[in-house]
Every structure is written in C-alpha cells, then in structure tokens.
Design a protein that fits this description.
Radius of gyration of chain C: 26 Å
Distance between the termini of chain C: 59 Å
Helix content of chain C: 25-40%
Shape of chain A: elongated
Number of domains of chain A: 1
Protein name (chain A): Quinol oxidase subunit 3
Distance between the termini of chain A: 56 Å
Organism (chain A): Neobacillus vireti LMG 21834
Strand order of the largest sheet of chain C: 8-5-1-2-3-12-11
CATH superfamily of chain A: Cytochrome c oxidase, subunit III, four-helix bundle
Function (chain A): Catalyzes quinol oxidation with the concomitant reduction of oxygen to water.
Largest sheet of chain A: none
CATH superfamily of the largest domain in chain C: Cupredoxins -  blue copper proteins
Mean pLDDT of chain C: 86
Number of strands of chain A: 0
Number of strands of chain C: 12
Mean pLDDT of chain A: 95
CATH topology of the largest domain in chain C: Immunoglobulin-like
Order of helices and strands of chain C: HHHEEEEEEEEEEHEHEHH
Radius of gyration of chain A: 19 Å
Strand content of chain A: under 5%
Low-confidence stretches of chain C: 278-305
CATH topology of chain A: Four Helix Bundle (Hemerythrin (Met), subunit A)
Low-confidence stretches of chain A: none
EC number (chain A): 1.10.3.-
Structural class of chain A: mainly alpha
Number of helices of chain C: 7
Largest sheet of chain C: 7 strands, mixed
Number of helices of chain A: 6
Number of domains of chain C: 2
GO molecular function, one term (chain A): cytochrome-c oxidase activity
CATH architecture of chain A: Up-down Bundle
Oligomer: heterotrimer
C-alpha cells in the first residue's frame, strides 16, 4: 500500500480514500432510507384509527434531553477527529468514549420513551400512525445501537494498534456516520416531535 | 407434529411433488459428483471464497441462466393454461403462484444478476482496473443475492409460493387475504437480495469514480461503463425505498402493524406508491446497462465510433432523473384526479425523448459504417425494431385517459414484455455471446447463435403482438382462465405458439453452449471481434490481476487508438501488484442470512435471534480482522505474461 | 423474412379485427369514445415513428453492409452533429407536446360528467366489490343488485367505487376505462351509455383466487324501461337485511340477485366521516352506526350533484 503523507492519515492510501467515498455514497442511500420513512410517517400521521394522536402522547422533556445528548455527542466526536488529526491518541480516545457514553444515554432515554408509549396504549400495533412513528424512531435507534458497538470496536482497535492509516480511516468514517445520525435526529425532533406537539 | 405442519405445501399438486423429488435428486447428484471428483477444495478455494470480479461475474451469469430456466418454465405453464378457453391444466391458485414467481424471478433473480454478471466482468476491465473498489463486499453482494434467490425458490416446495402478484399490492398481500407463508418469502427473499444489490451500487460507483486508468476522464469512459455508473446511481437511490417498503410489509404480516391494512388507519395506496417509486427506476436499472451493451456491440460491428457520445451520456442522465418522476403512471386509475394524472402523463411521455435520442444515435452509428452481422450484432439489429414497437406502446400507455382502458390488461403485458425482452434479454444474450470468448476462451458457434437470435426474436413477436389485441378486446391480465364466448382464444393460442418458440430459442442457446464447449477452437486471439475498448486489450484468459501494467488512455476507444493510431497503451515496466485475499466470510455470512430469512419466513424466533447474532458476529470479526491482501511479485507477473503470450 | 412475418401478422390482425371490432375500439358511450379516439390517434402517430425507424434501419443495413463495401474501406470517425441531434430531439419533443395536449384535455373529459346530456342529473350508483362479487346500490331508487347492472341510456352515470377487501378495478370497456375500488376511500367514475345493449363488465385488478370470474353483466336500456325495471324490483324483490348482506360478503362466487333497500344505510361507504382517516376496526364496527343518520347523509350526498 502506497501511503501519501501529504494527505491526512485517513485519506492517505487509495484504499482509504475509496472507503471514504464509498461511505459517502452509502450515506446517500441512508438519506433515501430515512426519506422513505419520513414520507410514510407524514402520510400516515393523521391516520390514528382508534389510537392516540401525536399531540396526545409526545412529551417534551425526555425528547429535549435526548436531543441535547445526541447533539453534544456529535460535537464531541468532532473533537475526537480533531484530536486524531493532530495525532493525540489519548484525547481522541477520551472524546470517542464520551461520545459513546452520550449515545448510550440517548438510547436509554429512547428505550424509556418506547416503554412509556407502549404503556399508554400507543404500541406498534395500535394504528398506522404509531407503526410509522415507532418504525421511524426505531430505525434511528437501531442505527445508534449499531453505532455504539461499532464505535466500541474502533476504540479498542485504536487503543491496541495505534493511529495507523487503517484505524484513522475507520475512525473518520465512523464520525461521518455519527454526524449523519445527528442530522437525522434533528429532522425527527423538528418534524415529528415539535410539529406533532403544535 | 404441529411444528412441522407449517412446512407443508398448502396447495399441493403432482407437479410440485415431482419437482420436490427432482430438486432432492439434483442436490444429491451435485454433492455426490463433487465428492466423487474430489472437487470440494477446488470449489471452496476458487469459487466460494473468491473475491475476483471476473469469477463473481461468471457466478452471477450461471445464476441468471438457471433463473431464466425457472422463470421460463413458469411462462410456458401460464401460456399453456391460457392457450385454449376453459382450460383445466392449472387451477386458479397454481396459476396465481406461477405468475407471481414468474415476475419476481424474471426481474429480481434473472435480469438483475444478468446485468450484474456483465457489469462485474466488464466494468473493471473496461476502465483498466485490477478489481472493484471493495472486492470482498462484491463477493458478499453476490452471495446475498444468491441466497435470496435460493430462499425464494424453495418456497414452492416448502410452505407454499407467494401468490399476490410480483407487485404484491396490499391488502391482498396482507395476512387477511394471503394466509400462507408465500408472501413472507417474497418480503424476505427480495430483502436479502436487495441488500446485496444496494452494496453493488455503492461498490461500482466508487470503482468507476476512483479506479479508472490514467487518462480516462469521465467523458472518455466507454459507454457501457457510463451506463453502469448511471445504473448504480439509480440503485443507490431506489433500493433503500424497497428496503423500507419490504420491512413495512414484513411487519404488517408478522408483527401485526397497520401500515397497509384496511383497519386502524392503514393505507393500501401507500404500498402501491412506494412499490413504484422503487419499481419504475428498477426498470431503468435493467435497461440502461442493456443500452450500454448495445452501444458497445453496435459500434464494434459497424466498425465505427459511437455516434453522438455526449448526447448518449446526457440522455442516460436525463432518463435516470425522469425515472424517479413517473411512478404514478403505474396507477393512473387510483383516483388521484385529472391534474396529477396530467403531470405524470407528461413526465412519462417525456422519457420517450432521451430514449429516442439513443435509438437514433445507434442508427446513425451504422451510417457510413462497415456493418458485420455477427450474433451479438444480430441481436442488436433485431432489438431496434422490436424495442421500437414496445417503446411507442409505452408512449400510448403514458396517455392517462387512454390508460384507463389499457391498465391491467394484456395490452400492458404485451408492452412491458416488448420492451424488456428486446431491451434487456436480447442485450444480455448479445453481451453473453460478445463476452463469451473473454470469459471462457472460446467462441460460441455463430450459425447456431444466429439461428437462436432469429427464433427468439420472431417468437417474441408471435408471443406478444397478439396480446395488444386481446388486451384491447377486454382481456384482463392475471386471469387464469376465460370462457370461449369472450373470443380471446385465437389470440392466446398464437401467444402460446410464440412462447413455445421462445423455449426452442433458449434450448438452442443451451445447445450452442454444449456444442461450442465440445467443438469450438481454443486458439483465439485476445481480441476476436476486432473491438475498440480496453477489455479486449488484455489476454484471454484474463490473468487474475487483469493488466500487468495499468493502461494509459486518451480517448473512449483506447484499444482502437492503439491498433490504428499507434497509441502506446502500456507504457512502463512491471511492478509488483497488490491484490486482495480470498475470504470465506461473505459466503458463510450469506449462508447465515439464508437461515435467518428462512426462520423469519416461518416465524421461528429462536433461530432468528441466533442467526441475527451470527450476522453481527461476522461483521465484528471483519472489523477486527487484519487483512492487507497480498502482492504478486514481478517474477510471477513475467512468468504469467510469457505463458499467456505463448498461448 | 422478419418484415414479411411482421406484415403478415398485422394483416391477420386487421382481418380479425375486421370481423369483430375490439371492445375498447367499439365504444358505446362518450367516455369510451374519447379514449378510443386518443388510442387511434396515438396508434397513427406511433406508426409513423415505427415506420421511420424501420426505414432508417433498412437503409443503413442495405447501404453499409460490409459485404457491399470494398475490403480496404475504413469507416470515418464522426463525432455527431448538432443539427442532426437537434432534429432527433426536436421532432420527438413536438410529438410529446402534441400528445400531452391531447392527453391533458382527455383527462379532464373523462374525469368530469359526460358531456352532451344537457343538465340531466347523473344517476348515482355505488359499486362495491367483495371477494369475488360486485354489489350495486342505487340509493335514489333504494334497490341493490349483485353481479349485474342495469343502467338507463342517454343519462350520465356516476359510479361510487369502493371495496370490501383487496383493491379491485371496475371496468366496462365499451362504456369507458376502469378505476380502482379500494377499502379506505370512494372513487368516482363517470360513464354513460348512448346505445342500449348488453356489455361486459369486470374487475380488472388481480384480487386473488376468484379473480378470473369476478365479472358482471351490464344492460343499458331506455329510461322508461329502466324505470319499469326499478318498479318491478321494488314489487318483487326481498329486502336487503344486514344479516343477508354479511352473508353476501363472505368470500366466494354468487349468481345474480336483487334486493330492495341498500347496504349504504347500515354499512356506510368509506367517504366523508367514514373515510380512511377515521377508520376504526373495519366494517364490523361501522355496522353499529345509526341507520337513519347515514341514510340522510347518503341522500344529501346526491343532492349536491
């Protein structure tokens, strides 16, 4: 593998730059995936059948906490990548760990939220609206869960193998993924929760 | 005993039992054969674990041909049932299962792998690359597709085939009206194959954008590569819609949700919309690579450069954009009103313009050429008139008021077969014949090849032209029978004769493969067709690294430049070549996916959870794996090159 | 060989069509006539394109075959020409614009009350499908039929389509194109018959096992005859009770039958307040709705038409 030192570590080989482009294209597909879920949600949002409406079940506090946790984690992973760029492995690992902990916090609140919905009679099978809501949120939540494991694996690898073109590349791609989940959440927050509560 | 009841066929018939026995015997024969000839090691090392794009391409090809057989048998049974009025050959249930599987198999498991086969084999060679960007992902794509196809195909012997049409409209496809596990197979098998396709899309865009030979700018790419790039872009944007759609359908069927049901707010129209938001681009995913093949073949055998290169590229890009803006024309009759119908009517007809540009450019490529009618060229030349008939009837269908009369009738069936068969199938057969020598080192017999091209194209006309008429006479599609008083009898009899002719045509192709394998000369050059692009610049058989020295390019016809204008294609010296390692993980992971899918179909939750964990373990292992590939030394390259040159 | 075969095929086709006209091209009402006109027009224009493509192809093949050229002929490199390609884009664009124009006009025609009947009120018929039957409710006349449809000629008919099950498509080729019947909304299809006669009607959208036989007979007759039929039905037919209708809804095939009263009262169609938005758990729940309230609502429904 030829390593081009004029480029940042994560871009430094052909394979690395292929992977980053490939991942961007993957994110394009992810945008379509969430766009489909959103359009299903907006189509079905008023079709509540015998179940509750969004305004009846949404609560602002847990959602705000989730939002703050996830937004902060997007910021900390940015700091992590910055640390990686200047070669500070220790700081990078610290920021990645904080990111994952924040993600875990987000996930706990989301699980709590789901349990609450099921409790008050807004389960997956209640109506078209609840199915679309829980599927959209659930898909995002599943992405976060997947990200937690992925991020953990990367932390372990960086710790063991140090900052190599390979680990730097993985870390950078993971950060793209994490930022993307944050962007999706902003859409969920604005158009599912805020709009639903109005 | 209850546990095993679920695997029984809900609507058995002697034919199905016979198929069970046949499948069982075939599997035993294959296992016994491989064991007897001690080929397990070879199979594992050279094929099951390969990451070589050429071998993956060949495996796609074999799968496509197998599925063509399966879908073809379905077609023959349907046409036989309809050949005469009030026929009792099949009952309604079996007919429904057959046309459903015919549609799914032909589109998802025959046409898709066929284009994947050619893309895999040709694109890296055509752009002067040593492999695709992510070789292992490519292997995973193939095996996921393959396992999806196998899962779908066992449905008719275990648990029952899907029977709600390849479109699987809800509420018909919901558990209220489709109780058997058949539609679960539909949801899950296509999902697995679809994930593989999506990965291919990402892989090939990256490959084409990043791994082209030095000097090959975007506008110097051969037309098939352009077609592949545009196609894969459509895949990346269309397939996630299918992923979500199938997930929702699965949830409605297995988890009791209400996305598409008739109760609790469910909306059946949502399925139709999403299905065609994916489904229409899917049509262009199939046809654009076919157009790419025709561009290569026509320019090679007209012995001329492709006319209007830029407008060819432009029209593909426009087609790809428009393909996302026409989905409503699949259900003009759903009641969305005159305004919506008018808008989609116009976008639909607008697609005729870029398609027409391509057609005229092919015609003008013949102009002042020196046309040599070989088998691939014959397919291309037969494609032009037949496809034109299919295409203009598409414009007719695009007129929404008139579509109220065509919709759901045999007219529609005639139209899409008249575009897909000449458009996709002829192109794949042309591509198969054209690239056969590069793949296998000998040429297919021209005489048998031309005969099969004629038989297939004439039979296509015979099979489908009558349907235009019976459709206009009121024959709805998907009817398993009709009474004599309708007067549809003669039309359907002619169609049956055409279908039988198609069977003969495909049998001729099989015979040709057998005949040429036995008798064709192995002493052929690397460029037997006197072609123009890079895939013909390397040896036959193609060495694992494709090109010993990466080619340098200065036009879209690099090989032609080298042959006619003294362009130096391979400047420089041998250097060691980095190649990816083989891996068994894609195959194993896909096998786990197969069990996962099977468990899902039958709601076997414990195996489902275990296999889900298995899949994630495979991904975790991949994350921790250190695999830097291997190098081929200069000595080794020299030896291989000398051997190939000597041959 | 190919061309000979092709022309042979078309000749056979024309001869056959000459004997008995294809239903869609033999319209008996204004909507079907509009559609048949569009179809014939587009066939005409498309044939010109097909002929042009065939012509160019034959010309190229006869003139530029390798066998007709000297051995050392080298085809030139031709990039493409702006003029030629502009023509190749321009002519199709003009054709598409013309066809769009025609198509849009026809869209509004087939989606409106058929023209040419003065200010005659349309006859409203609720046509609903269940596996695998058609139920025709005449709210004005307060009668209902199964699997057959009587309509008066020279009067616009407004079909209200919906389904108790899979999506179906209501189609009477000689009177006009089809439209979907779905479970969570009511679609409106405007048709009219100019000529008395018997026509084939069917569900055109695949709906499972009994789909092929999911047909109905249509009889168009003069208005006086129609009125006579209504009177006779009212005198002789049994009333349609809720129990009877539930029995009719069961999957299967039935012959033709006639009732006084309609199911619209005890089982309102999915329109207005009964539409998809507020759908509870399907028709079984709606059955308990007040009969009177929905009857007035369906009456007011055709007052404002």
């Amino acid at each position: 593998m030829k390593i081009d030192n004029s480029l940042p570590l994560e871009y430094s080989t052909d394979e690395n730059s292929n992977k980053i482009l490939g991942f961007w294209i993957f994110l394009g597909a992810e945008i379509m995936l969430f766009a489909t879920l959103f359009s299903a949600y907006f189509t079905l949002v008023d079709r509540t059948g015998t179940g509750p409406t969004g305004a009846e079940i949404f609560e602002i506090t847990p959602v705000l906490i989730e939002t703050i946790l996830l937004l902060t984690s997007s910021f900390t992973i940015g700091l992590g990548i910055h640390a990686m760029r200047i070669g500070n492995k220790k700081a990078m690992l610290a920021f990645f760990t904080i990111t994952l902990l924040l993600g875990l916090g987000f996930l706990s609140f989301e699980i709590f939220e789901f349990v609450h919905y099921v409790h008050i009679g807004a389960g997956l099978q209640t109506s078209a609206f609840t199915a679309a809501l829980l599927t959209t949120l659930g898909t995002h939540g599943a992405h976060v869960t997947f990200g937690l494991f992925w991020g953990l694996f990367i932390i372990l690898q960086v710790k063991k193998r140090g900052l190599t073109p390979e680990t730097a590349n993985k870390s950078f791609i993971f950060s793209l993924y994490w930022h993307f989940l944050d962007v999706v959440w902003i859409f969920i927050f604005s158009f599912v929760y805020l709009k639903g509560m109005m | 005993m209850d546990f095993f009841d679920r695997f029984a066929i809900p609507n058995p018939s002697p034919v199905i039992y016979a198929s069970m026995v046949a499948i069982g015997l075939t599997v035993i024969a294959i296992i016994a054969g491989v064991t007897y000839f001690k080929k397990w090691g070879y199979l594992w090392q050279e094929w099951l674990t390969t990451v070589d794009h050429k071998r993956i391409g060949i495996m796609y090809l074999i799968s496509a041909l197998l599925m063509l057989f399966r879908g073809g048998v379905d077609a023959i049974m349907m046409r036989a049932q309809l050949a005469v009025p009030d026929n009792k050959l099949l009952d309604a249930q079996h007919y429904n299962e057959i046309f459903t599987t015919h549609g799914v198999v032909m589109i998802i498991f025959m046409a898709m792998p066929f284009i994947m086969a050619l893309m895999n084999f040709v694109v890296p060679l055509q752009i002067g690359a040593r492999d695709v960007a992510f070789p292992r992902l490519n292997a995973l794509s193939f095996w996921l597709f393959f396992m999806g196809a196998m899962l779908f195909n066992i449905s008719f012997v275990i648990g029952g085939s899907p029977d709600a049409g390849w479109t699987s409209y809800f509420p018909l496809a919901g558990t209220d009206f489709s109780e058997s596990v058949g539609t679960n197979y539909y949801m899950i098998a296509i999902q697995i194959a679809g994930i593989g396709t999506l990965m291919t899309g990402i892989n090939f865009i990256t490959t084409i954008l990043k791994m082209r030979a030095p000097g090959m700018t975007l506008m110097k790419m051969p037309m098939f590569t352009w077609a592949s790039l545009v196609t894969n872009a459509i895949i990346v944007f269309a397939f996630p819609v299918l992923t979500v759609l199938l997930a929702m359908g699965t949830m409605d069927r297995l988890f009791g949700t209400h996305f598409f049901t008739t109760t609790n707010g469910g909306m059946d129209m949502l399925w139709a919309n999403f299905f065609w938001v994916w489904g229409h681009p899917e049509v262009y995913i199939l046809i654009l690579p076919a157009f790419g093949i025709y561009s290569e073949v026509i320019s090679t055998f007209a012995r001329r450069n492709l006319y209007g290169y830029k407008s060819m590229v432009g029209s593909m890009v426009i087609i790809s954009l428009l393909s996302f803006l026409v989905w409503t024309h699949h259900f003009f009759t759903m009641g969305q009103g005159a305004l919506t119908n008018s808008i989609f009517s116009i976008t639909t007809m607008a697609i005729a313009v870029p398609t027409g540009v391509k057609l005229f450019n092919w015609l003008f490529t013949l102009w002042k050429g020196k046309i040599e009618v070989t088998t691939p060229m014959l397919y291309a030349l037969l494609f032009i008139p037949t496809f034109t008939i299919g295409g203009v009837t598409g414009v007719m269908l695009g007129m929404s008021a008139a579509d109220y009369q065509y919709h759901n009738t045999m007219f529609l069936v005639a139209h899409f077969h008249m575009v897909i068969i000449p458009g996709v199938v002829f192109a794949m057969l042309a591509g198969l014949t054209y690239y056969w020598p590069k793949m296998f080192g000998f040429m297919l017999n021209e005489k048998i090849g031309k005969l099969s091209a004629w038989v297939i194209s004439m039979s296509t006309l015979l099979a489908f032209i009558p349907m235009f008429f019976s459709g206009l006479d009121g024959q709805a599609r998907r009817m398993y029978t009709y009474s004599e008083s309708t007067g549809f009898g003669p039309w359907n009899m002619v169609s049956f004769i055409g279908a039988a002719g198609l069977a003969v045509g495909f049998a001729l192709i099989v015979y040709n493969i057998y005949y040429s394998t036995r008798y064709a000369s192995r002493d052929i050059s690397a460029d037997p067709w006197n072609a123009r692009s890079l895939e013909w610049a390397t040896h036959t058989p193609v060495p694992s690294y494709n090109f010993a020295i990466l080619p340098h390019v200065k036009s879209s016809e690099a090989l032609w430049d080298a042959k006619k204008h003294g362009h130096e294609l391979f400047p420089g010296e041998y250097e060691k070549i980095h190649m990816p390692n083989n891996s068994g993980v894609p195959f194993i992971m896909s096998c786990i996916f197969f069990v996962w899918g099977f468990s899902f179909v039958f709601s076997l939750w414990i195996p489902l959870i275990l296999t889900t964990i298995g899949i994630f373990v495979c991904m975790g292992l991949r994350s921790f794996e250190k695999d830097h590939g291997h190098y081929i030394s200069v000595d080794e390259i020299e030896e291989t090159e000398n051997n190939l040159r000597g041959a | 060989m190919k061309w000979a075969l092709l022309s042979l095929l078309f000749t056979i086709a024309t001869v056959l069509t000459g004997c008995e006209p294809l239903k869609v091209l033999d319209p008996k009402g204004p909507q079907a006539a509009t559609q048949a006109k569009d179809i014939m027009l587009s066939i005409g224009i498309m044939s010109i394109i097909v002929l042009a493509v065939f012509g160019i192809l034959i010309f190229m093949l006869t003139k530029y075959r390798a066998s007709k050229q000297s051995k050392d002929y080298e085809p030139p490199h031709i990039e493409g020409s702006l003029l030629v390609e502009t023509i190749c884009v321009g002519i199709p664009v003009l054709i598409v614009i013309f066809l769009s124009f025609v198509s849009v006009q026809s869209n509004y025609k087939v989606e409106a009350k058929p023209a040419g009947y003065g200010d005659k009120e349309p006859l409203i018929i609720y046509a609903s499908s269940s596996n695998w039957k058609w139920h025709f409710s005449y709210p004005e006349e307060n009668i209902e039929t199964v699997n057959y449809l009587y309509i008066p000629t020279d009067r616009p008919i407004e079909f209200k389509l919906y389904s108790y099950g899979p999506i179906t498509s209501f189609w009477i080729p000689q009177l006009g194109g089809q439209k979907y019947a779905m479970s969570d909304m009511v679609n409106t299809l405007h048709l009219a018959a100019d000529v008395p006669g018997e026509y084939m009607g069917r569900n055109a959208n695949f709906s499972g096992k009994g789909f092929a036989e999911n047909t109905f007979n249509v009889k168009a007759m003069s208005e006086t005859e129609f009125d006579k039929w209504v009177k006779e039905v009212k005198k002789t037919a049994k009333p349609l009770t809720e129990d009877k209708f539930t029995e009719l809804l069961k999957p299967g095939h039935l012959g033709q039958s006639t009732y006084t009263g309609t199911h619209l009262g005890f089982l309102p169609p999915p329109e207005g307040e009964h539409g998809g938005h507020n759908h509870g758990s399907g028709h079984s729940m709606n059955m308990e709705k007040d009969e009177k309230a929905s009857e007035t609502s369906s009456e007011s429904e055709h007052h404002h038409h």
